[in-house]
């Protein structure tokens, strides 16, 4: 392998259950806190690299449970968003952030144009290509997928407590989000809100736009407060809940 990744690093993209019977395509851009060998530690401590700035804790675990409960496909990024955040376009500073929350990222300070291109080609291009290829194949087979991106967020941000537990996010197409919010409103399971704790103005809907809106697909972004999915019990309860409201929503939209 040449460029950023070594043979030991392996592929930047992982795919699971691509022959899924469900139309749901789960996407997890921030699944891993792993760094490519050549990146070292980006100048960060072990504590920083284990924290939310490097990945979305619990997001992949919940996604993998949804693969089984929904018979869904899953595509996820195998390296930390600190090297390249695959939910951001290459021109965005946040794609390779010099600062994340309260942490400065020394390895991302003053990145050269050549370095930005190397990271983009090694991580973003294979990831977005995998999504495009899957969607194109399903559409050609007359089975357009339903795009569901999976994320987690911190219960405290810049010292402020967040009481929202699940965010249902959307950009210009709110069809699936509307249906999920309606389904969530029938239960008292979690505090579920629209476009919280982030929304389109925060630049978090890149994948939804590029792969959902531009293909005319039903799409939604799910944000889970990460203290709810720190262990297998919480992950199972959350996956069961999301399986229910997603299934109900897709049934309603198909009528």
The dominant shape is: globular
Indicate the structural class: alpha/beta
Order of helices and strands: EEHHEEEHEEEEHEHEH
Stretches where pLDDT falls below 50 for ≥5 residues? none
| Gyration radius, rounded | 18 Å
How would you characterize this protein structure?
The chain is α/β, with parallel strands linked by helices and 255 residues long. It is 33% helix and 17% strand. The strands form 3 sheets. It has a 7-stranded mixed sheet, with helices on both faces. The protein has a two-stranded antiparallel ribbon with strand order 4-5. α2 (59-70) crosses α6 and α4 crosses α6 (232-253).
List keywords for this structure.
33% helix, seven-stranded mixed beta sheet, alpha/beta, two-stranded antiparallel sheet, 255 residues, globular, Aminopeptidase
């Amino acid at each position: 392998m040449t460029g950023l990744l070594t043979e030991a690093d392996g592929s930047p993209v992982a795919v699971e259950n691509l022959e899924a019977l469900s139309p749901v395509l789960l996407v997890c851009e921030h699944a891993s806190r792993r760094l490519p060998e050549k990146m070292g530690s980006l100048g960060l401590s072990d504590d920083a690299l284990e924290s939310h700035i490097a990945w979305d804790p619990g997001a992949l675990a919940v996604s993998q449970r949804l693969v089984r409960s929904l018979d869904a496909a899953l595509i996820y990024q195998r390296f930390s968003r600190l090297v390249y955040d695959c939910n951001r376009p290459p021109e965005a500073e946040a794609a390779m952030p010099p600062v994340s929350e309260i942490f400065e990222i020394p390895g991302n300070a003053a990145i050269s144009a050549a370095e930005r291109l190397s990271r983009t080609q090694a991580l973003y291009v294979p990831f977005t290509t995998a999504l495009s290829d899957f969607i194109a194949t399903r559409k050609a087979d007359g089975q357009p997928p339903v795009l569901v991106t999976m994320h987690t967020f911190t219960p405290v941000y810049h010292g402020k407590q967040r009481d929202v537990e699940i965010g249902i996010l959307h950009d210009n197409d709110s069809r699936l989000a509307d249906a999920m919010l309606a389904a969530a409103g029938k239960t008292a399971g979690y505090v579920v809100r629209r476009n919280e704790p982030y929304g389109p103005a925060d630049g978090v809907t890149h994948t939804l736009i590029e792969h959902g809106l531009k293909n005319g697909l039903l799409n939604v972004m799910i944000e889970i407060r990460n203290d709810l999915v720190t262990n297998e019990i919480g992950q199972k309860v959350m996956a069961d809940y999301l399986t229910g409201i997603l299934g109900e929503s897709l049934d309603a939209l198909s009528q």
